[in-house]
Amino acid sequence: MLFLLIAFSCLLFQFFLPWWIIGPLAFGFSFWKAYSGRNAFQSAFYAVALLWAVIALIHTLENENILANRVGQLFMLPAWNFNWVIMLMVTALIGGLAAGVAALAGYYCRLAFTKR
After folding, report:
1. Following CA atoms 28, 32, 41, 96 in sequence, which dihedral angle do they give, to the nearest 10 degrees?
2. 21-44 pLDDT, tens per residue?
3. What does pTM read for this prediction?
4. pLDDT tens per residue, range 51-88
5. For residue 30, what are the contacts with CB-CB under 8 A and spacing of at least 6?
6. Which of 24, 30, 41, 63 is deepest in the core (most CB within 10 A)?
């Protein structure tokens, strides 16, 4: 449930807001719905990593991997034909980690404000 909430809301809001909207969304939904720290981090990480990987794949296939291969050259990767795959994985990892940490913070923030 948390995975779907984060994935669909990030997809929707990233059309007209900056990329970092994933942080407040993951924070808010994890504050509201997460039942453990592991659930919060994993749901947000996988939701955003999958979302960003699919979006990056769509964009890189549109331009025949030209931009991703040039960014790979910028990072001094070897001149392989699949630099775009590495760049796709890096993109997914960065987005997933940003959302996962925000979601974990949201869960722990809720724990800090609730009575036990």
Report:
1. -30
2. 999 999 999 999 999 999 999 999
3. 0.89
4. 999 999 998 888 888 888 788 788 887 777 777 888 88
5. 2, 40, 43, 44, 102, 103, 104, 105, 106, 107, 110
6. 30
